[in-house]
């Protein structure tokens, strides 16, 4: 005689999946400061000293770095000579415009990871249901009797 399954088992499984989902969501969506991320890049004000045409070259900018004037190529074009632009130092002989840098934490990659983990959990739960669900259809379909009209 088979022992029927308790409905408490399903409640426990759903509780575990819910807690894992909440844990993954909290781990992925906490602020970056809590995770020890590096400080955001600070823009520096620079002045355009030489302008280049957009089809031929790049603009040259100059900024003050601890009392020393530095020049570098700006990864952009179309600025007027003497115009002030905010730049981000990239560590090479070229700088980028601060407007081209993303603002805020990278939510897209965190959201992708969250949705991927939820999809994996849902797939695992579906596999669990498929494996352990009771069969509702008979294994062999009954054949009609020879003597009765169908």
Tell me what the structure shows.
With 150 residues, the protein is α+β, with helices and mostly antiparallel strands. It has a domain at 44-100: OB fold (Dihydrolipoamide Acetyltransferase, E2P). 33% of the residues lie in helices and 21% in strands. A five-stranded mixed barrel has the order 1-2-3-5-4. Strand 4 (84-89) and strand 5 (94-97) form a beta hairpin. Helix 1 runs antiparallel to helix 2. It is elongated. The model has no long low-confidence stretch (mean pLDDT 75).
Low-confidence stretches: none
The count of helical stretches stands at 2
Biggest sheet descriptor:
5 strands, mixed, barrel
Order of helices and strands: HEEEEEH
Q: Please state roughly what percent of the residues sit in beta strands, choosing from under 5%, 5-15%, 15-25%, 25-35%, 35-45% or over 45%.
A: 15-25%
**Helix/strand class:** alpha+beta
N-to-C CA distance: 37 Å
> What is the typical, i.e. mean, pLDDT?
75
CATH architecture of the domain at 44-100: Beta Barrel
Essential attributes:
5 strands; single chain; OB fold (Dihydrolipoamide Acetyltransferase, E2P); alpha+beta
Strand-helix topology:
Blueprint (H helix, E strand, L loop, with lengths): L6 H23 L14 E7 L8 E7 L2 E7 L9 E6 L4 E4 L9 H26 L18
Parallel strand pairs: 3-5
Antiparallel strand pairs: 1-2, 1-4, 2-3, 4-5
Helix pairs in contact: 1-2
């Amino acid at each position: 005689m088979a022992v029927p399954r308790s409905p408490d088992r399903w409640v426990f499984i759903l509780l575990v999946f819910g807690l894992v989902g909440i844990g993954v969501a909290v781990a992925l969506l906490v602020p970056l400061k809590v995770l020890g991320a590096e400080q955001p890049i600070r823009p520096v004000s620079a002045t355009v000293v030489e302008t280049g045409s957009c089809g031929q070259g790049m603009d040259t900018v100059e900024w003050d770095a601890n009392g020393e004037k530095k020049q570098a190529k700006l990864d952009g074009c179309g600025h007027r000579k003497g115009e002030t632009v905010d730049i981000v130092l990239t560590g090479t002989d070229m700088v980028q415009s601060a407007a081209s840098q993303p603002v805020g934490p990278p939510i897209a990659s965190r959201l992708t990871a969250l949705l991927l983990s939820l999809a994996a959990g849902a797939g695992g739960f579906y596999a669990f249901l498929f494996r352990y669900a009771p069969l509702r259809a008979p294994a062999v379909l009954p054949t009609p009797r020879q003597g009765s009209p169908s």
